[in-house]
UniProtKB/TrEMBL annotation:
Keyword field contains Electron transport: no
Keyword Ribonucleoprotein: no
HAMAP family, alphabetized: Inorganic_PPase (MF_00209)
Location(s) in or outside the cell: Cytoplasm
Residues that hold substrate according to the record: K34, R48, Y60, Y144
UniProt name for this protein: Inorganic pyrophosphatase
InterPro entries: Pyrophosphatase, Pyrophosphatase_sf
Catalytic activities: diphosphate + H2O = 2 phosphate + H(+)
Species of the source: Hymenobacter caeli
Residue sites binding Mg(2+) 2 per the record: D75
Alphabetical list of Pfam families matching this protein: Pyrophosphatase
Length: 186
């Protein structure tokens, strides 16, 4: 059997982690489709179409070679002035984190800006963002599952130092969980 390429395991998380990370976009900004990486094949699959009038407020994806308690790679929202297509690798400057509970499980979302987009890469902290952007992210995640009879609670937004700590913890858990595989791609 020939080995296959899996973006979760076979793409580097970047050279300046945790300040800047590679991110793989699963869902473009404005989408109503909930796409997810199929962990076994490495392909993108349509999980569902959102049953609500909301759409993703930013490009949404994951940080390769990370792992969280929800058994998925660490989620990331990337702000950018252009639409980022599915499975695009984007260098993202980390500026904060949204801590939330999804069905009683912790589900942190790293917030970042596209490092090579001059219209957003001057943002260094969450406080630099226009206030509506934070509210939009919070409302999206609270509202998009409401019509599915599921509960999401956004607990709080934290700054980049907390985001760095969460990224580092997800890398440590990935390395503990995947061992040798984790060492091969560095």
């Amino acid at each position: 059997m020939t080995p296959h390429f899996n973006p979760w395991h076979d793409v580097s998380r970047g050279e300046n982690v945790p300040q800047s990370v590679q991110s793989i976009i699963e869902i473009p900004k404005g989408s109503k489709g909930k796409y997810e990486l199929d962990k076994d094949s490495g392909l993108l699959k349509l999980d569902r179409v959102l049953f609500s009038a909301v759409h993703y407020p930013a490009a949404y994806g994951f940080i390769p070679q990370t792992y969280c308690d929800d058994k998925d790679p660490l989620d990331i929202l990337v702000l950018c002035s252009v639409d980022i297509p599915h499975m695009c690798v984007v260098e993202a400057k980390v500026i904060g984190v949204m801590q939330m509970m999804d069905q009683d499980e912790e589900d942190d979302k790293i917030i970042a800006v596209a490092a090579h987009d001059v219209s957003v890469n001057h943002y260094n902290e969450l406080d630099d963002l226009p206030p509506y952007m934070i509210r939009e992210m919070q409302r999206f995640f609270e509202d998009y599952k409401a019509l599915e009879q599921k509960q999401v609670i956004v607990k709080k937004f934290l700054g980049r130092e907390d985001a760095y700590r969460i990224i580092d913890a997800s890398i440590k858990l990935y390395e503990e969980t995947y061992g040798e595989k984790a060492q091969q791609v560095q």
